[in-house]
Write a structure and sequence with these properties.
mainly alpha
Length: 215
């Protein structure tokens, strides 16, 4: 454990708490892409198959369970909660996310570090997480306006990946056998996808104005 990974984990956890706060405090999921949340739930379920085979630490196990449980809870609320689901922007959330799932799985079958079921699903989860935010960004560009909690959620989600890039750089410099090149490349691509959002987020923060994305 190093400070960059800890910062990334805490930022990721904070992003989830912000989203849960939005949903439970306002009883609304307006501005949130269900398709992105379903992709993230699939990411965690695929990545943490080692819960059944490997034990690293209590911290590691707890964080994995928290991410799985929270992602499934968010999807359930958006699909099943009688008040929350009424605010879902279904007409704006039309990105065909199943293409991202298929492409990520095909890529994992071709590019992986070891040809085992667990490693292929790990690579699949890394590739899928890199593009999982796309339906969310498309939804926000279509709607234009971004409420404060949704903006904070996406900013924290992007910052978590940026911290993980620093974590990988640190591990590459300090661990002689560190070779997670799939995670490094995918993390850089994922952070780049957030670049446009980060730009408009910074502009709105600098001008103390409401965050708006160009259509």
């Amino acid at each position: 454990m190093n400070m960059f990974r800890l910062a990334g984990d805490m930022t990721h956890l904070l992003s989830i708490l912000v989203l849960l706060l939005k949903i439970y405090a306002t009883k609304s999921c307006s501005g949130i892409s269900l398709k992105t949340q379903e992709l993230l739930a699939l990411v965690f379920l695929a990545r943490y198959l080692d819960l059944f085979t490997d034990f690293i630490s209590v911290y590691n196990t707890v964080m994995k369970l928290v991410f799985i449980a929270s992602s499934l809870a968010i999807v359930w609320c958006m699909r099943m909660h009688p008040m929350v689901k009424r605010s879902y922007d279904k007409e704006l959330d039309t990105f065909r996310h199943y293409f991202l799932v298929g492409a990520s799985f095909m890529l994992a079958l071709i590019l992986h570090e070891k040809f085992t079921i667990q490693e292929i699903f790990w690579a699949f989860s890394i590739y899928l997480e890199a593009v999982a935010i796309v339906p969310q960004l498309v939804l926000l560009q279509r709607s234009g306006n971004v409420d404060n909690l949704t903006g904070q959620y996406i900013f924290l989600l992007g910052a978590y990946r940026a911290f993980y890039i620093l974590n990988w750089i640190y591990r590459y410099l300090t661990e002689p056998r560190f070779s997670r090149w799939i995670a490094c490349i995918s993390g850089v691509i994922q952070t780049a996808i957030y670049a446009d959002f980060f730009y408009y987020y910074f502009i709105s923060w600098k001008n103390n104005s409401k965050l708006k994305l160009p259509a």
